[in-house]
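Task: complex structure prediction.
Instruction: return structure tokens for all chains below.
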Amino acid sequence: MAKLKVFSDEWCNAWADKIRESKEFPIHNKGWEGDIGCCISKDPKANLPEDKYLYVNFFDGKVLDVRMADKETAENTKFVISGEYIRWKQVARGELDAVKAMMQGKLKLKGNLPYVVKYVKGVQETIKCLVALDSEFPDD
Amino acid sequence: MSYSPDLSFIYFAPTKVVYGVGSVSELPMEVSNLGKRVVLVTDRGICDAGLVDEVRDILGDSLAGIFADVPQDTGMEVCDRGAEYAGSVGADVLVSLGGGSVIDTAKGMSIIMTEGGSLSDFQGMQMLTRPQTPHIVIPTTAGTGSEVTSAAVVLNREQGQKIIIYEYHITPRVAILDRGQMQVAALLAGWAFSNALLGLVHAMAHSIGAVRGIPHGLANGLFLPHVMRFNLEEVPGLTADIAEALGVNIHGMAPLEAGKAGIAAIEALQDRIRLPRRLRDIGVQEEDLKKAAELAMSDGSVVYNPRMVLSSDEVLEVYRKAY
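Output:
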């Protein structure tokens, strides 16, 4: 089976399906309300000539939406996480813990931190699902 | 000791440290390196103790004003008021003289003085992209380590919760330690936990502090053996290291046994310094525990506890043991 091109619709859908298949996610995301915008800075040297924006929306343990979006949509979400492409790639490959990345300033979080901490196991489960995808990154 | 070739870490400790009895006399030079007009941030207790007078004299004409309206547990509105005052007197440098609440107030003020708005606008982590208003700390206690950390703990009274603001750009520029060797110990601890991060002890202490106003240092000390016991099976070797550091002979002991000896040594230390051992003895009511346990689950410190904390019920159990 062909690898999923990162930032493609297929990749977004596969990630959403993976989260829906998870038995842990509904438990740890129960009660969550709010959308998340992921802002990925361009990195021409890594074959990413433009900034990318990902829109993710969960509600009470359910996946409502995972899709590529425009800047305005991503930046007007309840939680905005921004960072360089290389950091996102490290997170998506399971090489960098997302929370640690935020603490070290490699990713920047805008939004209510205690709320995110309360649901941190749900966040970790979504990343586990992302890591499980057979992804092809722009610079692979 | 050899290091694994896979080892990687970031160690962030940019604060200049000026140490020694009388080192507060270095303050004017440190101020002149950073700006011109100082607001001194402190609290009423420090004023009443007469500690402000010496600093006022040393600062001379560079002192633009004193903001002494800092309570035991500082809040977002306190930082907002302080920043407004600092702006009104044209300050470009902050000097904090006090304990953790005073230092953290100045950290919060430094954000508003640079970015504008209210501290409640800055919800997130590592959002700041530029240096904030320079801040020199003169700690008057030996304990918080806040003089070298990137964190400020500020009470959000609307949410009834202490919020951790963690930003590299609020790390104080200079720490002047004028009051003895214990301050060096606190500073080293501050560097350690600002990089290694915290755990369930602090999450529980922040939360019971928000619910019942228990001083942070007292709560940390009280919870320590209980959380060590909670974590023991996950990190017996590290707990055994504590035993050894406290002078326990762990030779021949299994790691778990040595870890338990470490917990016993901490409890013996609590007794020696006459630290209260039960929450009920320091004004906590049993009905406070459930709320505090739920708050602790959304405290940033809980994420890095060595044993993953799965539910507020687990935290409630530890609170009950400490009650």
